[in-house]
Fold:
Amino acid sequence: MQTQENSGTQASSLERRIDMAVPLADIDKEVQQRLRHISKTVKMAGFRPGKVPMNIVAKQYGAQAHSEAMGVAIEKAFGDKVREQNLRVAGYPRIEPKSAANDASMEFTAIFEIYPDIILGDVSASSIERPTLTIGDAEVEQTIGVLRRQRTTYVTADRAAESGDRMVVDFTGRKNGEEFPGGKATDFSVLLGSGMMVPDFDAGLLGMRAGESKTFDVTFPADYHAKELMGQLVQFDVVCKKVEGPVLPELDAAFAKALGVADGDLGKMRDEVRANLEREVRKRLQAKVKNLVMDVLLAVNDIDVPKSLVDLEARQMAEKALKDLQGRGVAGKDVPVEPSWFTDPAIRRVKLGLVLAELVRLRGLHAKPDQVRAIVDDYAETFEEPKEVVRWYYSQPERLAEAEALAMENNVVDWILANAKTVDKPVTFDELMGNAA
Structure:
């Protein structure tokens, strides 16, 4: 087989083209070998196994044998040329027949992408502000307050509705005097001040009492998810059926037992809340630092990435998003998920994957067994039977691979922090937990 590189224009810095001429004699030889192999085992009515005439076998299986022979020949020709040029192919090649041909051979062009050559950038001049936070009594009490609010009960209130109340209402919305889809509901429960409704609707309910009716205007936000209502002014007729006020549980033994403290000891409850909070804060700090490190790596390593890898990553991200929606009871046909929505994060992932792999290779930052075990142990501590969780992890190759990847990323983070300009930056509890607003 003969191959030659096409000097044609490349569509991107990573795209390559290879022309291949596959001799027809080699194809015919391979086809005959395949037909002879098939004839030894093929079964046909009227013939004993292995005794079917070759011309009948060729008629029945000739197209299949020819297609397989062509595939093998093209794959070999492509592989030979790739190895000869020491190319690292990303994804799969696209094979196109050439218009020019002759009686002795069939000609094809393989179009494919290669992995980029990565020369790691210098991170020593990069600055990273590493967030820090120490958990104190105030953060513990604030968390206990959140846990109490999560267990709020509601009782009927014979008064005007206030923020924090739960209301049961009937409503009908009209745009230009006409009812619009999704604008009508009966016995609808609304938690005032929770942000579950658009601001104007929430404000319109404030001050209503059970049995009261009211009509008010609502302007939908310009970025509202329903395009036909974006920025539109509508009117709502509302009937308030019930107003319920919130009641927080007492901070007592019963509350402690509800959080899993068997004897209801409030001191033990606070100790457990502190331990869980410290674990959560540590994970959030690590995640923020990791994102900062990855941003630095991308900033000093601006590389081109193969489109084929980006497309694959985007499809996988779309499939995961769809599964998540389906897991929440949303039918896939109701919410079509397009891979194109994930192009930007897919590019980031592919870039980071390539850069991380090169950094790990050059600096010997591979995950060590004791590091992997530490990650598994930390995860297992959140369960009642940690030993069983550890045993399960080490019996599941996919799960263990996730722990190994995390350990490797931690090694990269530590290396970057040691080689970049790093300063500690205290953050507040609310900032870290996403409660700054």
